Amino acid sequence: MNYIIKRNLNYPTFEFLKKNIEFHNKKYNYYLSPNLSEYKFTHAFFTKNSSYKNIKILGSKLIKNQNDYFLSQIHSCNLVNCSNSSKENVTKADGLISDKKNQNLWVYTADCMPILFADKLTKKVAAIHCGRKGLEKKIIIKVIKNMVNLGTLKKNLLVAIGPSISVSNYLIDKTCYEVFLERFNKKNNAFIKNNMDEVKNINKNELIPLDIKRYAYYQLINENIPCNNIEISNLCTFNNQTEFYSWRREKTSNRQWSFISS
């Protein structure tokens, strides 16, 4: 029996716009955030059939420039400016922040959240890979603080969380959940404390569903990002085997690409 924590912080999910590009008569699907699209940010959350394509080839149909930046992802809270992560010197980190115009920020995921940030006024952007460990290490909070230091006002910051694993498919044991809550709850917030109290009463052999999207949403609104600026995809990488790789489903090393361009 799987234990469901009752005290949920409700968050909205959205149907992202499905598009495709074509190479040699074959279509490659991707999804777009409605908010990012409205403000003309070039971006995409790609699906599994694009994973083996070189990012320059993938981006060539969507981006005029070919200034691509990516990382060696390590489930950290490390962030780097794009100019410090090159093809010749790939940085070990989990977040990229634009420091010039016409930079393409790429991250790859399979169950973890690809999260894209965009300042609708200054046009600065960021992209992170964030799962349970990223939430514990507060990479979301860190990228917001970095963008604010670069001149972003929180009221202007758009955030799009792409396809990732849903709560019903991400099950962890009691010890793991307690460690997560302890590390997550730095400010001793009542919402998290209530969850911690519930977990204490769970049998040690029970598996507990962890809703990473909910905790990401919590961190965002706790940092005073307006609710209307946050979009969370309703797609689950675990459930949608046709379109997405899932590490929890098949222990695959394959990933989906996501990007945003400054």
Word description of this protein:
- It is a single chain.
- This protein is an alpha+beta fold and 262 residues long.
- The protein has one domain (17-249): CNF1/YfiH-like putative cysteine hydrolases, CATH 3.60.140.
- It contains eight helices and 14 strands.
- The strands form three sheets. It has a six-stranded mixed beta sheet. The protein has a six-stranded mixed beta sheet with strand order 5-6-9-8-10-13.
- Helix 5 (174-184) runs antiparallel to helix 6.
- It is globular and about 55 Å long.
- The termini are far apart.
Mean pLDDT across every amino acid position: 91
Portion in strands: 15-25%
Written as H for each helix and E for each strand, in order along the chain, the element string is: EEHEHEEEEEEHHEEHHEHEHE
| Biggest sheet statistics | 6 strands, mixed
Rg, please? 18 Å
- Number of helices, counting only DSSP H or I runs of 4 residues or more: 8
In CATH, the homologous superfamily goes by the name CNF1/YfiH-like putative cysteine hydrolases
CATH domain topology:
CNF1/YfiH-like putative cysteine hydrolases
User: What is the helical fraction, as a range of percent?
Assistant: 10-25%
Major β-sheet strand ordering: 1-2-3-14-7-4
Q: What is the strand tally?
A: 14
Task: Give the terminus-to-terminus CA distance.
Answer: 46 Å
CATH class: Alpha Beta
The best one-word shape is globular
Low-confidence stretches: 1-7
What is the architecture at the second tier of CATH?
4-Layer Sandwich
- The secondary structure category is alpha+beta
Domain module tally: 1
